Each structure stands twice: as structure tokens, then as C-alpha cells.
Amino acid sequence: MSDRLHTLSGYLYEYQKSVSQPEEFWARIADSFFWRKRWSKVLDWNFEKPDVKWFTDGKLNITENIFERQLFTHADQPAIIWEPNDPDETGRTLTYRELYEEVCRFANVLKSKGIQKGDRVIIYMPMVPEAAVAMLACARIGAIHSVVFAGFSASALADRIQDCKAKAVLTSDGNFRGNKKIPVKAVVDESLNKASVETVIVYKRTGQEVTMKEGRDYWWHELVEGQSTKNQAEVMDSEDMLFILYTSGSTGKPKGVVHTTGGYMVYTKYSFENVFQYSPGDIYWCTADIGWITGHSYIVYGPLLAGATSLMFEGVPTYPNPGRFWQIVEKHKVNQFYTAPTAIRALQAFGTEPVEGYDLSSLKVLGSVGEPINEEAWHWYHTHIGKGKCPIVDTWWQTETGGIMVSPLAGITPTKPAYATLPLPGIQLCIVDADGKELTGNGVEGNLCIKFPWPSMIRTTYGDHDRCRKTYFSTYKGMYFTGDGVKRDHDGYYRILGRVDDVINVSGHRMGTAEVENAINEHPLVIESAVVGYPHEVKGQGIYAYVICDMKNRTEENLVNEIKDTVSKIIGPIAKPDKIQIVPGLPKTRSGKIMRRILRKVAEGITENMGDTSTLLDPEVVNQIIQGRK
Ligand code: 6R9
């Protein structure tokens, strides 16, 4: 049964109902799933603690809702179409039955290695179908997966292994990305000098040489050999943890966002079907990596729960040439295409030539996620990819929200460039001013909050519940605070303006300024640093670092490169500052706070009207910084 909305009036009607009778509304949606035991209460909530429970006492397994619930009708339909990095390599297609059997076999492998319900398993893998198999096998046996983006460094990986006390790491020998062959197992080995796990399972992808530690490391293909293609799913409570996903915040340490089973299942399927208007037989493609929430909710869980065909791409948009995305769209006759503004801008820079010659007529819906999409990129996407006939769904949401919160429903909600438009049913937005006063009516601008629970919301931050309360539920009483600024225009449409906290969004990836500063400060000659974001043509925001250091005998160029390498080693190449300026001092107030607004202005290229600098300890520092601007 599908809960797809078909008209604007239908959406408006359902939205009203979801607000006036939320429990009845979500119970109806949840009833189309397979529950081992139905819930006793739809919703219990308290935003002060916070303590939120959806479908209390409900028992289920999310993979039974992907497989058993649908196998009679979907068994031979493709679940995952995999397109490799190199267009000359043959891809793979896994039907629902084949995927089911792989998941069961790997679930049995995990069990044979002593992994049990509630254990944490790190997945550090490239974009191969086995990465999805790994996630689903964990869910099958009730283990909690935590996918770590395979571009993160050994030290970032070790921190995550330690934070969640993982029992196993699932990985690969290497990873193909563009024309590069990247070591993956070697990074795991390095991380395990610092952290420790009982078991490492290695999927062979590139065939490159790896070292295997006796009694700890095993080959994936050897372990699955001979395993049964059946596995009795673990019965989970609706509120049992499904996964942990680490994300950056305004403090230095990444936090483990926790999602639970029942609510996440209900919301990801519902939002997937409605936003993308998926019809049976469509080919849907989301270009995200499974290391991010978009990959979790809209490559794996949402589409598979909806019985969709989800295309998974291993490579990058520009290899072997900038026509690669469009060649894949033509080859697989993709109907819904979901990507990030940074990819659109990067491809836009190559002009329309790489697009020409490909048949993109299969496309029905275009999606955008990860950062605000600027109007120019929106129009380019709409005109040159969608040929003016595909609605663009600009989807606003977060790791913490689990699913899409604000977005047009494709073909239903009239769109407006750069606007995420209207909230999905069940999502009660609220705009507040700096004092937490709700700004009602249209034509207002402020901080975006959500005032009522939704099924796929964050439940806690792993191992530190108070951090969850402080970060999201304490800024504005009784509300979830998103960290984003927003405008509601005269039509009541929402436009996301970007982060209002110390989080930078680089190519759709979240980076805490403190996290990058901590990494920079690891360089032995660095005394202090301050990091801000600045507008970047392709990445949306770039990273600008102001660094005080002891130059010793280094040239500035050498030192800058060393600092970049340090950040790359500690977090990963995505966190490497775009610009590093060596400064004699930082603009600090008498109370020792760095005045970041000045640093942001200079990074943006503004050198006049610095505003009130009277509270600065040494206002002269500002002039020195302006003069040395990069
Ligand atoms: C899904 C995802 C979340 C932050 C979020 C916001 C920005 C995401 C956006 C958008 C404007 C959109 N963001 N989608 N800003 N328009 N359509 O990206 O999750 O990695 O946790 O990032 O990304 O600033 O707060 P995550």
C-alpha cells in the first residue's frame, strides 16, 4: 500500500491532519508496515529531557519490512543497480531476492563472529553493494551500525571506534575513486594501533596487497562461503537503536547521532515516496555516499522500504570525464536524480558540452540536498539537466532529523528557485528571534526550530545524553533547534539561509570550526588558530584558517603545506583549509573571546566597516590581519 500524496490540496489536507491529530496520522502510515507486535502508544514525548518515543512497545525488524513484507511481489525486481567507478567495468544488479540472500548470509557471518544484538559495528567501505548488505545485515541481527565515510583518516576512524566501543570493523582492501586506487584496509590497520576491535572483515574490491592479522582479520568472500541464505530476523523494539552516525557540531568532538528503529523506518519510506513521487518500476539515483545520512535514508532505507530500485554509484562526477553522471542517467534510464549543489556547480563549470549528446529524457524529478542551492545553479540544473520539464525538489534536512523536513513534493508543490518551499506532513516548523520569541506570520526571518516531534528524529547522542539536550533542546525552550537560519516569505515558503552556529558547510559536508582548529593545533609549531567559512564558488563554503605560529626556519609556504597535511591526516582531505593565513595575533576581546565576525568579514574580502571593535584587547591586530589577507 502506498501513502503517496497526489495533489496540492491533498497535501494541504494531510498536513492539517498531521498537525491536529498527529497520533492518528502516523498510526495510519505505520499500519502499512509489518509489525511483529503492534505498538501500545503512538507517541510519548518530552523536549526538556529530551525523551521521545514513537510506537511504544511495537516490535519489528526493519529488514523484514524490506524483504519478507515485499518478497512475494518484488522478488525479481532490481533492488540495487550498481555502477562501478570505471565505465568499462561491468556493473551489477541485485534483485530483492538476491539482496535478501546476501543480507541473510552476511547476517549469519556476523553472528558466527559473536556479534549480537546491541553490539556496535563500524562500516568503513567504498560504494559497493556490500556496504548496503553490511548495514542491512547489522539491522537483521540487531547490531547497531555506524558507517564512517571511507575518506576519513585513521585518526578520525579510531575516535569513532573508541567512542562507540565497536566490536568489529567491516571494510575493503581498497577503493577506486576516479583514476586513483586508495588504500582502505591500511587505514583501518593504522586506526587499530590506537583503538581495538575483535574482528575485521575485509571485502576484496581492488585486489591490492593488504596485511591480515591472524585471528582478527578475515576475508568477506571466505566467510560468506557456505553460509545459509536464510536468517531469522531479531525482533527489535521500536525504540531500539538502529544506527549511530557521527556528525560535526560547533564543538571539537564529532557526536554520535542516534536513530532508532520504528520511527526511522516509517518516516524514511513515507518521505521518500512523497518527495520523489516514486512509481513502481522507476529507477531512482541518489549520488550521495553511504557515509552520510543522505546515503542511509535515501540510498538504502527509504528506497528499499518502498520497494524501489536504487542506483548506487562508486565513482566521482568527473571521471573519466565530466559527462559521467549524464552517461549513467542515459544508460540506466534514471527517472529520479538526487545530488548536491556542489556537484551541480562543479559540473556547471564545464559548460553544457558534456551534457549534450546524452539522452536525459527518462528524467522526471531532480533533487538537491546538503546546502543551500544558489539561484544560478538551480536554473542551470532546471534548464540543462531537467530540460525545463522536471520539478526540482530542494530538500532541507539534517543528520539529526533522519529524513527530509522541508521540500516540495515533486510535481505537486509549485517550486521557487532556492526555496525548500513547505514542510512535509508532520513537521511543525517555528521561526524564532534571538530571544526565542516565535515570529509568526509571513515575511519573517530568524532561527529555524521544530516544535513537535517527528518519527525519525534524533533520540540521543551516543554515550552522552546531556550533550544532545544541550546542543538541540536548550537554546530555545521546548523546541528542537536546527542551527540554521531561515526566511519565510510572503507566500509562506521557506528559504534556508545557512548555519547560524560555528559549523561550516563544505561541499555539503559539515565541519565544525573547532574540529578543524583542533586538528591545525596538532602541528607542533602552531600556537593558536581560528577557522571560519567564506563563500566559495564550487564548494559553497571554503575553509579559511588564521594561524599564529612559531616559524622556526620554515618558509610560509612550507608551513602552510605542513598544516594542510596535518589536517588531512587528522580528519581527512575534506577538512583541508582552502586558505591559511599566518597572523601575528587574533582579534580577541578583553574576556578572551575571538571576535569571529571580523575574521569572517576579512575572509569574505571585506576590509572596511569592521563594526564595533572597542572591546578588543588590541584593535591593531585587525589591520595586520587585513593587510595579510589571502
Ligand atoms: C541532509 C544533510 C545538515 C545541514 C543543515 C543545513 C544544510 C542540508 C539543505 C541545507 C539549505 C538544503 N542543508 N540541506 N541547506 N538547503 N536543501 O545534508 O545532513 O550533513 O547533517 O547537514 O546542511 O545547514 O543544517 P547534514
Automatic annotation (TrEMBL):
PROSITE patterns referenced in this protein's UniProt entry, alphabetically: AMP_BINDING
CDD domains per record: ACS (cd05966)
Q: Where is the Acetyl-coenzyme A synthetase N-terminal domain?
A: 14-65
Name used for this protein in its record: Acetate--CoA ligase
A Pfam family recorded for this sequence: AMP-binding_C
NCBIfam families to which the protein is assigned, alphabetical: Ac_CoA_lig_AcsA (TIGR02188), PRK00174.1 (NF001208)
Q: Indicate the segments forming the AMP-binding enzyme C-terminal domain, all copies.
A: 515-593
Instruction: List the residue ranges forming a coiled coil, or say none.
Output: none
The family annotation for this protein states: Belongs to the ATP-dependent AMP-binding enzyme family.
Top-level taxon: Bacteria
Domain AMP-dependent synthetase/ligase as annotated: residue spans: 67-453
GO BP term, pick one: acetyl-CoA biosynthetic process from acetate
Gene Ontology MF terms: acetate-CoA ligase activity; AMP binding; ATP binding
Which organism is the protein's source? Algoriphagus kandeliae
**Entry's EC annotation:** 6.2.1.1
Task: Read off the InterPro entries from this record.
Answer: Ac_CoA_lig, ACAS_N, AMP-bd_C, AMP-bd_C_sf, AMP-binding_CS, AMP-dep_synth/lig_dom, ANL_N_sf
Q: Which UniProt keywords apply?
A: Acetylation, ATP-binding, Ligase, Nucleotide-binding
